[in-house]
From TrEMBL, chain A:
Pfam families noted in UniProt: GDC-P
Protein name: Probable glycine dehydrogenase (decarboxylating) subunit 1
Homology family: Belongs to the GcvP family. N-terminal subunit subfamily.
Keywords from the named record: Oxidoreductase
Gene source species: Glacieibacterium arshaanense
UniProtKB/TrEMBL annotation, chain B:
GO biological process: glycine decarboxylation via glycine cleavage system
Pfam family, one: Aminotran_5
UniProt organism field: Glacieibacterium arshaanense
Oxidoreductase as UniProt keyword: yes
Residues covered by the Glycine dehydrogenase C-terminal domain: 387-485
Coiled coil (UniProt feature): none
Highest taxon of the lineage: Bacteria
Function: The glycine cleavage system catalyzes the degradation of glycine. The P protein binds the alpha-amino group of glycine through its pyridoxal phosphate cofactor; CO(2) is released and the remaining methylamine moiety is then transferred to the lipoamide cofactor of the H protein.
PANTHER family: GLYCINE DEHYDROGENASE (DECARBOXYLATING), MITOCHONDRIAL, GLYCINE DEHYDROGENASE, DECARBOXYLATING
Name assigned to this protein: glycine dehydrogenase (aminomethyl-transferring)
Annotated EC: 1.4.4.2
Amino acid sequence: MRYLPLTPADRSAMLGVIGAPDIDALFVDVPAAAQLSAPIAGLTPHMTELEVERKLGALARRNMTASDGPFFVGAGAYKHHVPASVDHLIQRGEFLTSYTPYQPEIAQGTLQVLFEFQSQVARLLAMDVANASMYDGSTSMTEAVFMARRVTRRKVARVSSGVHPHYTAVLNTLTRFTDDEIVTRAPDFTPDDDLAALAAAVDADTSCVVVQNPNIFGHVADLTPLADACHAAGALLIVVVTEVVSLGLIKAPGEMGADIVVGEGQSIGNGLNFGGPYLGLFATRDKYVRQMPGRLCGETVDADGKRGFVLTLSTREQHIRREKATSNICTNSGLCALAFSIHMTLLGESGLRKLAALNHARAVQLADRLGRIPGVEVVTRNFFNEFTIRLPQEARPVVRKLAEKGVLAGVSLGRLYPDNAALANGLVVAVTETATDADFDAFEDALDEVLA
Amino acid sequence: MTVSASNHRVVSGAPEAGGAPVTTFTGNRALMLEEPLLFEKGAIDRWGVDLPDVPAVATRLGGLERTAEIGLPGLSEPDTVRHYTRLSRQNYAIDMGIFPLGSCTMKHNPRLNEKMARLPGFADIHPLQPIDTVQGALALIDQLAHWLKTLTGMPEVAMSPKAGAHGELCGMLAIRAAHDAAGSDRRVVLVPESAHGTNPATAAFCGYTVEDIPADARGRVDLAALKARLANGSDVAAVMITNPNTCGLFEPDMIEICAAVHAAGGYVYCDGANFNAIVGRVRPGDLGIDAMHINLHKTFSTPHGGGGPGSGPVVFSAALAPFAPLPFVRKTGDHYELVEEEQAHVSTDHDHSFGRMVAFHGQMGMFVRALSYILSHGNDGLRQVAEDAVLNANYVLASLKDLFSAPFGDAGPCMHEALFSDAFLEGTGLTTLDLAKALIDEGFHPMTMYFPLVVHGAMLIEPTETESKASLDQLIGALRSVANRMLTEDANIFKGAPYLAPRRRLDETAAARKPVLSWQG
């Protein structure tokens, strides 16, 4: 077998050194009733590389990819062009096959990358400090709510109706058995009402208000008044960003008064991958750093006085603090953070701003075109690269029919809110730099036909 | 970095030339290159991508334009490639040599897995595409699920947890949900002292109080103590047990433990971090467990990537299956469905699901890699994996236990990892940490240090099955040489190690006292 270096002669010699008659003698502690004497039935035996490639290749070909045709699907995961050098560099064995940097003298590569990543994320979100990553945006958001409880010693979290419903579902799941009280609002298309209602609801029991910007419908809003309302009541404002490219064009949460910013970093450097692995971003103000979840990389010096980097403040973490840890997270999204950092380095501030402007301009162009189709209404007033249209009929079947015509048109609100009939005609459309004018034409023509 | 009179820098650990330390202008040492921070090299008006011109449109941002400088430096593509390539060379990695971190299962990461995960049909599909357009992806998840269920002998698996600790949370949430559904208000979870820190942390996040289970003199769960606690166990919701445990030993009483916990009305959560030792030889379901996470980034070779991403699917017994999380894949005829949300009008066999744990469907990229690895090995190869992993660990144990203290070395064979302690260094003033740092100069990544906590000065060595005998012999030789020198030479030599790595020992106390967590320039 190509991954196993031991030869039969090696095995025999090693058993001799151990003083065991055979391999079974090393499994003596396993109860006899649980010992299997042969390979488990009903499973296939080993395969060559070529056989595996054939089998998995056949499965891969049964999927319609985002590059097979016009593609406008977003709602928390975005198709951006990732430069070829990103994937080359993350496949260097020294990055790909290294472990969490617990021995810093021989992990300065990973550690310097994490320090640079934390610095990039903090600046992008306009916050003081970012951690070395979480699993994804949804789990990051839940950790932020837990952190707000620790900081404020209050337990009511008020969640905007514009937060991605899957994120809210994750929060509800993970707080089912904690003391947290999650207050959600029914979704609607009018973000100003939502934000005003949240600001009015903040009270002395509120630990935090959670709001997404741009929100699930694509709306972009000024969160400053909401931040002021939170702070006046002693609550924290948690802002969720699921499309971080937007921060090259619109004000960052930190500039609008956020106390904790969480996000999904997939947009930069990482592919769609059917939903994972993705990259949870987590940032806050300096004064809250000791309440943060997850790993942190910090600067220090070595015995010769040379600058170096280490994992730090680990007394917050599970391997030290056990049941009193700020989080149970151990493995995070290190390689996805590396991909993010490399792509961000290739973009630089100028490139990020241009990429963001390009996304916005293309989205405005498509919104204007779709809005001219009879019966179609663009309901999102201010947006970045994603907006919601209301169709004259239920959107979910329309999306399926468009897919049959080779157009992946977006995410129907019926899929995101299966039990909310009022939203059933809504379709969330995302436009990135990857969409061409021909894609716009195809989308418009196909939608015309399906609605006719 | 010290700068000599000639304005050259003394290179740490460098040999002397003609009686003086070798110096270089750059501070570099041939192939060992110093690399400044991105923030010291880059500029905000520099970039390494070409983008088309932005069409002129009336913006629709509602006056929210970001105007202040963000402060993100860029580099050209050649400088980007160099920056990260140079940084990469300051890392140790499995691709370079044995990485014997106990409990971490650092095995070879086959590149076929990487190739398969990058097929556009897996890498370039969106989690919210219409279900009819992702049938191959759902089929892949279903096939991996079948392997995981069959290898563990468990009837159900939840695929979405993102890592081992997230899987633990999944299992414990299901246990909590099952108790709640039965009207039980049990609030205590028993965890052995040798457990991973994630176990008690996870139990606490499910609203449980954690109590320790003592270990016996052979490094196993003290069955008598456990039974005594369970005799008054009406408050015990679950027991979390790692098997094989973190001392590298199989729990021989596992069947009896599970039976006792069940008789007391509790569930058994098994931490599956060490599944590599038994895959294909033991089905955990046959031992009586109720839930177990599987670290695809350990047993099934998906790369650790410097700290992630991982993937932690959780297998469930029939008792807990109805409480498993959403979403899940369901096959009807030749068609795969993805059951995403709890919908009042849809009746499923997951009516008691505790809900959603992640935004989408889990770590698809890791699923592809794991299935690629599993298919490569097959049912016969996976069994050989466990056998070779256990053989390699026992070879290390047998080759070192005359010199190193091996707390359970006389208690029979170990499983996939060998546990030592620094007791043999008593009187030298040297510890596990010093030995680990000396091993770095020998060109190895050290073993796991100071874990499990039940052994003072623990050193946990997990070679994995992908090491050759020659590789093990070299590690053993280095360990013996270092240990012998520590017992006979001046201790101060070892207090200063490592000498030859890209950095000497780093001041972790200073880093924590006044944290510098981002570039302040």
